[in-house]
Amino acid sequence: MSTTNAKAISEGEEEASRMRNETLEESGHSGAVKRRQVILVAYLIAALDLTFLFMQFGIMPYLAKSLGLDSVGFGYLQTTFGVLQLVGGYVFGRFADQFGARAALILSCASGSVFFLLMSISVNIPLLFLSRLPTVFMHGMPGAQKVITDMTTPSQRADALGKLGLCFGIGIIAGSALGGVLSSKFGIYVPTYVGLVGSLINTLTAMVWIPLQTKPKSDHQVTEHSNLFSITEILRLMKFPGVMEVFIVKVFAGLPIGLFMIMFSIISMDFFGLEAVESGYLMSYFGVLQMVVQGLVVGKLANHCTEMTLLRLSVFVFAGVGLGMALMRTVWHYCIIAVPLVFAFSMLATITDSILTKAVPSSDTGAMLGICASVQPLTRTVGPTIGGILYKQFGVSSFGYLQLIVNTGLFVYLLKSKIPLKEMKSQ
Hints:
This protein has 17 helices and no strands. The chain is mostly helical.
């Protein structure tokens, strides 16, 4: 009888163990599905946020001109936007680390709502400048990056971050088209009304769909540093192995092409002889390339190559793009050059973001993403002055030669340096 009881107990324990394992598997599967849903929502919010942003980029010159703002004043307006984004990028990242990705994304979307509200009532120049203030916290892309960083393992990160480029492409194409159509058919302020309503919807979506805690519980830490802006904290992050080296490559590899893109509206008119509509088509072409590269190329390469290999590849391609830009003479040349240009630009942005977020503690990934997001505003702030001097004194080819020289130097540096990286290859 005792043997029978022991056997029954053993069988009962085995059955209980099997049921526990099945429950854990179901829980794990459910958790994976939930994470995928949250990531998809982050993609959606980012795509809509960028669409509204490019809508206002399209109408801003016309709105400023209608209010009597001259080219110098418009330059000041753009510089104000660049400075606010530059300062706000790191502050936003620190906010995300301290209060969570959900709170940060809600802050960004709510700031967008205030921005479009102020734009919609900008009937004079002071109000137009005032509408720039909320942009200090408008960082939809870094907010989505923070959600994705928290919801993915390090080996999945490069692929998941790379797919955000699809959102960028959608934003360029849809935003540019919608801004032009709505403003021409219904009035210059209509895109701001659409942006206001859309940003409010994004805010509610983030509240409902993004979980309060996006990091795994074992990985959830509250940073000890309460200051939202601290030079000491930036320097602390830069001291982690490999961070300073990779960040320098990120800044300088893309700087020459950043200067070129800032001057592109003038170059397209003076050098290529394009009309406004043709420039719009060229921007749409860029958007399509961005979507193809980010959606189909970056993720696959990240699964098969080490991140250092991809970093070297992007810098090498950038050097080749520089040579092509130095020799180009027509817009068709530029359309051909745009293919490797978009590839190098997308690869560099994705891989460096992935490397840098892995190199710092999980409690500092938001701050690191904020610092990365400040690179483009920095270029927009100093770019008009430097780009204007290069274009006026040396012509379009100067951007290409600068690109070639800088990236050749960086490529040699990457070949010789031994930068310590984590999760070198996606599994």
